[in-house]
From TrEMBL, chain A:
Keywords: DNA-binding, Sigma factor, Transcription, Transcription regulation. Belongs to the sigma-70 factor family. ECF subfamily. It comes from Nocardioides flavescens. InterPro entries: RNA_pol_sigma-70-like (IPR039425), RNA_pol_sigma-70_dom (IPR014284), RNA_pol_sigma70_r4_t2 (IPR013249), RNA_pol_sigma_r2 (IPR013325), RNA_pol_sigma_r3/r4-like (IPR013324), WH-like_DNA-bd_sf (IPR036388). It holds the Pfam family Sigma70_r4_2. One of its GO terms (molecular function) is sigma factor activity. One of its GO terms (biological process) is DNA-templated transcription initiation. Residues 97-149 form the RNA polymerase sigma factor 70 region 4 type domain. This is Sigma-70 family RNA polymerase sigma factor.
UniProtKB/TrEMBL annotation, chain B:
It comes from the Bacteria. This is Uncharacterized protein. Keywords: Membrane, Transmembrane, Transmembrane helix. The chain crosses the membrane at residues 39-60.
Length: 165, 232
């Protein structure tokens, strides 16, 4: 893995990709930039560890994922009435969303799974380790997220994950 | 052949940002974090909480209700029933302890607990506990310091549109803008299991006086880390 002699060098080498990952997670550029900046600021405070890590970019990405999930949990107040409408979702097929918009309709953890699996190209094992979930949960979330995405964004490419569901 | 990766790349489009500016901003933010940690470490977490608490106490309106808990950096907490000037810093461990106590008052025992203290002076703690005899069920509490406003206090409860597979989630949220407090209590139960608590009992937990605190939890000042397992 590439070694970075300075914090600035790490940001320059990994910043653009990290920012795009953050935008995919947050759904908009501004929030994505805030998330990436927060992740790098934490990385800066742990520079001794980050710089010695086998893969400093992965270290920063892990920080970013944890910050993202933590922030989402903090602001998640999606209340619904006592009536159970969890399984009554009806999707108008004429309603086409962009993939970025469709991503934002996924639950936070599912979105993180999709971004890590298909944007960062991590394996199931790596993704589950990064998100602190089991591999089977990761597979389930991945295939469920793809199914949901496809219902809103039919052009989504096929993957091996589709076969699982 | 188009892959999802390509489609995701297309959806993000070109991201232009000044990486030098990003590095400078991140460094400045990181230095501020580090300074905060050093300052807190130098005077001791509890002392820092007292200093910050004194300032906040002087500026803030009267507390929601008398403080009942003092949490130290070692995680111990002790009750000061009736003390109306106690300064309170809830860390994750103390929050888990409080939650377990509150649940015990409802006739249930905690099987395990874990908590996460405030990470960056944001005034939030989180804890969750398992319930003895109800496998897979857990109760989570999130205590936040919220901006003071003139909005009235409210306590709402209902079923949450949960994102976990095979679970049902009920939630009670108490917000008291005057007290600068938001308490979110969640009950997560595997589908098919009976609920160990009613929604009314959840509301009682959220309304519990123990959650009143007039100082954002700034004791640790640590960067976000995985939860601390307490293994009650």
């Amino acid at each position: 893995m590439q070694r970075h002699t300075s914090f600035e060098e790490l940001v320059h080498a990994t910043g653009t990709r990290m920012l795009r990952t953050a935008v995919l997670l947050c759904g908009d550029h501004q929030r994505g930039e805030d998330l990436a900046q927060s992740a790098y600021s934490v990385a800066f405070t742990k520079w001794r560890l980050v710089s010695r890590a086998d893969d400093p970019a992965a270290y920063v990405r892990t920080i970013m994922m944890r910050l993202y999930l933590r922030e989402q949990r903090r602001h998640r107040v999606r209340e619904v009435p006592l009536v159970d409408d969890m399984h009554s979702e009806v999707i108008d097929p004429s309603l086409r969303l962009s993939l970025l918009s469709a991503l934002t309709t996924l639950p936070d953890l599912d979105r993180a799974v999709v971004v890590l699996r298909f944007w960062e190209d991590l394996s199931i094992a790596q993704t589950s380790a990064q998100l602190d979930i089991t591999e089977s949960a990761c597979r389930t979330r991945s295939s469920r997220a793809l199914a949901r995405l496809r219902s809103r964004f039919p052009e989504l490419a096929q993957t091996a994950e589709d076969d699982i569901s | 052949m188009t892959t999802i990766h390509d489609q995701l790349a297309d959806s993000v489009g070109d991201v232009h940002t000044d990486l030098s500016a990003l590095a400078v901003a991140a460094r400045a933010k990181g230095l501020a974090r580090r300074r905060q940690r050093r300052a807190l470490g130098a005077v001791g977490a509890v002392t820092a909480a007292l200093v910050v608490g004194t300032a906040v106490h002087a500026l803030a309106p009267a507390p929601l209700m008398p403080s009942t808990v003092v949490a130290t950096d070692s995680g111990a907490h002790e009750a000061h029933a009736g003390a109306d000037t106690s300064l309170v810093a809830l860390d994750g461990r103390a929050t888990a302890g409080l939650l377990a106590d509150a649940v015990a008052a409802q006739g249930l025992a905690a099987s395990a607990s874990r908590g996460q203290g405030d990470a960056a002076g944001s005034g939030e703690t989180y804890a969750e506990i398992g319930i003895d005899g109800v496998p897979g069920a857990r109760i989570e509490v999130n205590v936040q310091h919220v901006p003071v406003s003139s909005a009235p206090a409210e306590l709402v409860a209902g079923r949450r549109d949960d994102d976990k597979i095979g679970t049902d989630t009920w939630v009670a949220i108490r917000t008291d803008h005057q007290g600068g407090l938001r308490v979110t209590v969640q009950l997560v139960v595997p589908e098919g299991q009976s609920r160990p608590l009613t929604v009314e009992q959840l509301k009682e937990l959220a309304a519990d006086a123990s959650w009143a605190f007039d100082v954002p939890a700034t004791a640790s000042g640590e960067a976000p880390e995985p939860y601390t397992s307490l293994g009650r």
